[in-house]
Amino acid sequence: MTPQPPTTEDQPHDLVGIGIGPFNLSLAALAHGVPGGLDTAFYEQRPAFHWHPGLLIEGATLQVPFLADLVTLADPANPWTFLNYLKHRERLFPFYFAEKFHIQRTEYDAYCRWVSENLTDLHFSHQVDAVRWNPERALFEIDFTHLDTHGEAQALGRTHARHLALGVGTEPHIPEPLKPLAEAPTVPVIHSADYLDHRERLLTAEHITVIGSGQSGAEVFLDLLRHRPAGAEKITWLARTEAFAPMEYSKLGLEHFTPDYTRYFHALAEPVRDQLLPRQWQLHKGIDADTMAAIHDELYRRTQHGGWPDITMTPGVTVRTAGRVATTKVELHLEHTQQGVRERLTTDAVILATGYRQRPLGPLLAGLDPYMRYDNAERPRVDTDFKLVLDTSVTGHVYVQNAEQHTHGVGAPDLGLAAWRSATILNSLTGKEPYPLPTRTAFTTFGLTKTNQARPAQQPGGLVPLIEQR
Predict the structure, then answer these.
(1) What is the dihedral of CA 69, 75, 78, 81, to 10 degrees?
(2) Is the Cα torsion angle 260, 261, 266, 267 positive or negative in sign?
(3) 130 sits in which H/E element
(4) What is the pLDDT of residues 426-464, one digit of tens each?
(5) Alpha-carbon distance 6 to 417, whole Å?
(6) Residues 6+ apart with CB under 8 A from 259
(7) Exposed/middle/buried for 418, CB within 10 Å: 0-12, 13-18, 19+?
(8) Pairing relation of β-strands 126-134 and 139-147?
(9) Which residues have CB under 8 Å from 354's CB, separation 6+?
């Protein structure tokens, strides 16, 4: 079908959001509560809201409490809270008696879809193609394609905005040695993001290999284990990390996911931030303790009648190369980093729980490239209010959501900071304070200066900083 000529909306929006995942959905929900109102529009190329549909495994829970919904931690009286969702579904009393602090992923997905179906400024099946700055009008121009039910171009359009919010999210990461196999149709080599779509086919494979030591790898391994016969499981679980390690979930450890720590991290020098992030992997890439316990319980149960389950769990392993054997099997060339030993593994299916990477912003923001400012690693610079640092001739702001881990730390992809970040963006955008935010959120003081507090406050114990803040 030939797309129709572009249509142009002459009236500019105050804010246009690109992408409708949980973070921009949070921004849209809180924008509705700004006094005086904001003219907003959010565009998403998918036909409806879906949150990691391939990993909505039965029984899998969020790794954050239900209070980390779209709005509560910034505005608990907001109509789009999770508790209000339960009230509208007449499920508030059952939830009260269930005494669940961590809800199932399927329930979080349903809650977000409820919000998305009730906000009127969300435009699904709209693919944003390009963004430009129009200096004559002092506005951003946004070109989009309206897609039909089959995902084909139906019509072209253009709209204008004073400010933008990028929430384009992440994309599954497939290691280089396995990319050719993942693209071949004959052998199932899939990313865990698509696990549920392929589960029935995977369960028919004689031998299955899971690669990846994080929460997704653990959940996929557990689900496969529960669906394979005792004594004939034939599952191998490999990981690069030195152990199948638990996620850091102590109460003081969780303070790394507070606004205080985010401000502290942002104030650090760029080389220090770059060295620090990889060392903090266990804060967000480990395995939930309950999932680890469930795996051990399931394995132990299978030893009750003698024998051991037919599984292999090996950390410290790197996949060097991979190839097909005949047309139905995969051969993985492995190396154990501590032993210095290499080995080959033949398997019938591979599930890559190898995480996600930030979606490249370059193609979308090519029209803004002359105005953008980059750090020493050629990454966009992002200020404390989540704005891209642009040339001063650009009077509009471009805010980013979950594209600023290099400047704001491990909390960037965390759902628990979604409402606070959205409120920070709206406070910055309006130049007012529609959402008053706390000045302190952690018991830990992350440094000898006061960068981790929103406003100056008396240091506990009368501590006097000896180092001037840079």
Answers:
(1) 20
(2) positive
(3) strand 126-134
(4) 999 999 999 999 999 999 999 997 665 564 433 333 333
(5) 38
(6) 417, 420, 437, 438, 441, 454
(7) buried
(8) antiparallel
(9) 172, 173, 174, 175, 191, 192, 211, 212
Residue with tokens 């003219």: 39
Radius of gyration of the chain (CA): 24
How far apart CA 107 and CA 91 sit, in angstroms, is 12
Helices (H), 185-342: 195-203, 215-226, 259-267, 270-279, 289-301
3 state SS for 399-419: EECCCCHHHHCCCCCCHHHHH
pTM for this predicted structure: 0.92
pLDDT in tens, 149-166: 999 999 999 999 999 999
DSSP output for 102-159: S-BHHHHHHHHHHHHHH-TTEE-SEEEEEEEEETTTTEEEEEEEEE-TTS-EEEEEEE
Neighbours of 253 (CB within 10 A): 13
Strand pairing partners for 153?
A: 147
142: alpha, beta or left, given left = phi > 0 and alpha = psi -120 to 50? beta
For the chain, the distance separating the N- and C-terminal CA atoms, rounded to the nearest angstrom, is 58
Per DSSP, what are the bridge partners of residue 170? 358
Residues of the chain falling short of pLDDT 50: 455-470
